[in-house]
Structures are given as C-alpha cells and as structure tokens.
Design goal:
single chain, UDP-n-acetylglucosamine1-carboxyvinyl-transferase, Chain, globular, 13 helices, four-stranded mixed β-sheet, alpha/beta, 23 strands, binds shikimate-3-phosphate, 2 domains
Length: 429
C-alpha cells in the first residue's frame, strides 16, 4: 500500500487557487450531452477519476466523446442513440455515475451490467432499484438488488409519483432521468432540498422541469438539444482551502471560479456563523449555475450546531468542517447526518478515527459527531481509507501538526481533485 509523507508545521498559506470543475456538474454534462440530440461542448470539465468513469461508461454505450485539456465534445443521438454495451460498465468509485446511469438505462430496451470498486460494492442501491422497478424496469443485484454487480434490462417506463425516503440528489436525479423516458408526468417529492444541478441542466439543454417547494415534476418524451456547458469550480474542492485559510496562522487565500449554487453553499453559512473571515468578492450568474470568487483569512472561530435542512447543502464538506471545528473554541455538534455512513466510507467513523489519531477530541454519535475544540494536533500515521475527501482533509490537518504525518492510500484524492497537492504546495510559505 502506498503512503505519502505530508507537509507539516507550516508557517502560512498565501496566494490564489483556481478551483477545478465541479464533479457533480461534470458527470451530468457527459450524461446530458449523451442523451441530447447534436453536439455538446463542455469546458472546465473535471478530469477526476470519477468523471472519467462516466465518460468510459457512455463510450461503451456507443456515444462519441472527445476529450482534451479539460474540454469535451460529445455527439448525442437522444436516449434512442444508446446501444447495448458488450462489456461491463465499470463505475469505479463513483456513486453518482452508477445511480444516475441506472435511471438512464431503466428506459433503454437492452441489457447492461454495472460494477464498481470495493467501496461501491458496500453502498446501498435499493434506494434506486426499488423506485426504478416500480416504473417498469427489470433490475437485480447482489442481496436482492441491494448491491453491485447490478444487472438491468430496461424498457417502457410508467411515470412515478414518489416520496424520497432520504434526501439524496443522486436518487432524485436517477428518477428524473427515468422520468424523461416515461409515458407521462413523474412527480418526485424530496424530504429536504438537495443539489439541483440536474434540474438546471435539463433547462440548459432546452427541456422543462418544474419545482414547487419540495415537489419536482418532469414530463417524459421531451427532446433535449446539445449545448455548451462551462462547468464552474467545485465548492466541495474549494472547501479544503477555505478551511485551511481559516485555521493556519497569517493566511489569506483567494479562491477563483467557485460554484455558488445555493443548494451547495451550506459551508459558507456555517463558516460565517463560526466567525470565519470569509467573503464573496465577486459573483456572477450565467442563468444556470452561479459562481464567484471567495476570499478567506485566518479566523477566530467558535463552535456551532450543524443540523436539519442544512445537512444536504454541505453533506460532502462534513469531514473538513469537522477539522475546522477542532480549531474552534467550544463544542460543535453535527447531527441529522446518518447519510455520512453510506458515503465512499462511513465518514462518521473515518473522520473520528483519523482526526483523533492526530490529537483531536471528537465523539461519534448515531447521526453525526460532537467535536470539542480547540485541540492541538500532533502527528501520526493516518489513512484516507480510499476516500478522497478523508485524504484531503488529513492533508490540511497535517499542516497544523507539530510532528511527522504519514498518509496511507493518498491516490484516492485523484477521484475529485487530481491537482490537489500542486495547488496546496503553491500556497505554502
Ligand atoms: C451527488 C450527490 C450527493 C453527494 C455526492 C454527489 C450528486 O450524494 O454526496 O458526492 O452529484 O448528485 P447523495 O445524493 O447520495 O446524497
């Protein structure tokens, strides 16, 4: 197993980072480009391992996709242009790829099989296989359709009216993609608002979808037309530098081109509540996905409570928020976040275990964690457990450590941020 000696005990972080493309939007740009009619051009695409898995799956489904320098050219021929793959569709580590792809394949009149890595093999799939089966697709998998490998034979779909049992954009999006192929109007009700990139992208491709509070309606049989997508930077990647800038002494970082979709900006609200010196210095909106520049400076932080409807708006940022809270005065409570247990790792366990090894004081709870600040971090041997966000969080934690820190399985970071270490090293003074 590979290990990496992390930089520790640094003086300060200063400079600018241009944040790479958003992972969720990059996946969707490939998928919508593939099911639309005509040419789609994508710029600032994220060439992370997860998004490359999505490209590879759609190529196996017969779609022409050219890729160079973070740009894509996709030639779509509608849903009907997808053809039966002769090989297994391998989604690697990507939950978004497998769950959204199942929604697309549910309406295609052919057979396909989906596999992924060891982590994907532990993630629950019934949350999509159950409603997609209700719509008329045939799906099966290990343990009664719960886990990969998943086999699908798609076909004619009936519209669905479905209340999501969990607040999940992946499940919502999977049903929207199936709904686009159904014979009538599908209605999906979310328990709390989740990221709405799928809805925004349908409009960008000339389609229609409505949202009334937590109820989404989409009609099947719409024709989507190829377009040009500029992917904004990923706020989930920016989060590592936002927290680093706040907790390392004498720091100031400007983060450029950060996606500011309000369904994703929970981290900004939490940091500002905790007292962070964080401001949006420039914002723009292209009518589909807003973005802007963020400036963060070293901050005096206090503990907070993160709960309820805020959780889906920062679900992927909880590992780095936990690190932030170790450097805040007082206690921080994170609750209503059971979903953390079914991410790339059980992120309640991996965050608590790895940060406590470095000297933090965090207790796991059934739906989150309690973090007692402020802790001195020392050093030690830690692991990403194969989870990109745990790996990056530990690399930021190490910057504060007095002693040596060695990270096992650092390669996981390329799932969402292949240039992470070069961007970090450019800021270290
Ligand atoms: C994603 C949705 C979230 C998030 C994941 C990306 C998406 O997952 O954690 O990293 O692109 O739709 P859930 O929908 O399972 O909460």
């Amino acid at each position: 197993m590979s290990t990496l000696k992390l930089k520790t005990n640094i003086n300060r972080l200063v400079g600018n980072v241009t944040i790479p493309g958003d992972k969720s939007i990059s996946h969707r740009s490939v998928m919508f480009g593939s099911i639309a009619h005509g040419e789609t051009k994508v710029t600032n695409f994220l060439p992370g391992d997860d998004c490359l898995s999505t490209i590879s799956c759609f190529r196996k489904l017969g779609v022409m996709i050219e890729e160079s320098d973070n740009e894509l050219r996709i030639i779509g021929n509608g849903f009907e242009g997808l053809t039966e793959p002769s090989e297994l569709l391998d989604v690697g580590n990507s939950g978004t790829t497998i769950r959204l792809l199942m929604g697309i394949l549910a309406g295609r009149p052919f057979f396909s099989s989906l596999i992924g890595d060891e982590s994907i093999g532990k993630r629950p799939m019934t949350r999509v296989t159950v409603p997609l089966s209700k719509m008329g697709a045939k799906l099966d998998g290990r343990k009664n359709g719960s886990y990969t490998p998943i086999a699908i034979r798609g076909g004619n779909l009936q519209p669905i009216e479905y209340e999501l049992p969990v607040a999940s954009a992946q499940v919502k999006s999977s049903l929207i993609l199936a709904g686009l192929q159904a014979d009538g109007v599908s209605t999906i009700i979310e328990p709390a608002e989740t990221r709405d990139h799928t809805e925004r992208m349908i409009r960008q491709f000339g389609g229609e979808i409505t949202k009334d509070h937590h109820t989404i309606r989409v009609e099947g049989g719409q024709k989507l037309t190829g377009t040009t997508i500029r992917v904004p930077g990923d706020i989930s990647s920016a989060a590592f530098f936002l927290v680093a800038g706040a907790i390392i002494p004498d720091s100031e970082i400007l983060l450029e081109n950060v996606g500011l979709n309000p369904t994703r900006t929970g981290i900004i609200e939490v940091m500002q509540n905790m007292g962070a010196d964080l401001e949006i210095v420039q914002a723009e909106d292209n009518g589909f996905e807003p973005s802007g520049n963020l400036r963060i400076k070293t901050s005096n932080l206090k503990g907070t409570v993160v709960e309820g409807n805020l959780i889906p708006r920062l679900i992927d940022e909880i590992p780095i928020i936990a690190l932030l809270a170790t450097q805040a005065e007082g206690t921080t409570i994170i609750k209503d976040a059971e979903e953390l247990k079914v991410k790339e790792t059980n992120r309640i366990d991996t965050v608590v275990q790895e940060l406590n090894k470095l000297g933090a004081n965090i207790e796991a709870t059934h739906d989150g964690m309690i973090i007692h600040g402020k802790s001195k971090l020392n050093g030690g041997d830690v692991s990403s457990h194969g989870d990109h966000r745990i790996g990056m969080m530990l690399a930021i934690a190490a910057l504060l450590c007095k002693d040596k820190v060695e990270l096992a399985r650092p390669e996981a970071i390329s799932v969402s941020y292949p240039n992470f270490f070069s961007h970090l090293n450019n800021l270290i003074r």
